[in-house]
């Protein structure tokens, strides 16, 4: 079994402008740059310590990921981040994120895992469902299968990928089952929602491992 090291970091905190009335090109929806936003991002780095990279480089890396994720235009010279918290992704999470090699999936999957850690199972099941959709899109793209952007149903992906001979009948059935778990999770008790979330996570891991 391969020994995977930590290769990504989850960084979270609060960012805002240092001064009021700084002009920005991208407005914050239902927010304000002077008040700022709470953020949680994934950074592709083993460490942000000054021994690993200059502080200017780590700040630029963090700011770039914040702006990409939240569609903002915070700037290094006029922004203030406090407090800054950093935690390593567990090795299995880093493995699946690296293998999928997609920024959108990385955000979705890491946030679903964070919700699991906080015992927010309903939220985790919902985000895992979205991440599973993204995995299906990536598998289609890797196999040059065109899918309309507005198609997001897991059942649609299951039949589309199977009929194109990309996934096996077993994985088609697993995707159809995942679709049911996803739909039922919103109407289940807490323990069932936890089980549903973990099932969706397992399907994601197996699909990525097999087809990406």
Description of the molecule:
The chain is of the alpha+beta class and 212 residues long. The protein has 2 domains: 80 residues, no CATH class; 119 residues. The protein is built from 7 helices and 3 strands, in the order ββαβαααααα. A 3-stranded antiparallel β-sheet has the order 2-1-3. The longest helix is centred in the middle third of the chain and has 22 residues.
Chart the SSEs and their pairings:
Layout: E1 9-17, E2 37-43, H1 55-70, E3 79-88, H2 91-100, H3 103-117, H4 121-142, H5 154-163, H6 169-185, H7 190-211
Antiparallel strand pairs: 1-2, 1-3
Quick structural summary:
The chain is an alpha+beta fold and 212 residues long. It has 7 helices and 3 strands. It has a 3-stranded antiparallel sheet with strand order 2-1-3.
- Biggest beta sheet attributes: 3 strands, antiparallel
**Helicity level:** 40-55%
Strand content: 5-15%
Rough outline: elongated
Average pLDDT, rounded to a whole number, is: 84
Assembly state of the chains shown? single chain
Total domain count:
2
How many DSSP-defined strands? 3
As residue ranges, the low-confidence spans are 1-6
Rg, Å, rounded: 19 Å
Note the gap between the termini: 19 Å
Classify the secondary structure makeup into a structural class: alpha+beta
Order of helix and strand elements from N to C terminus: EEHEHHHHHH
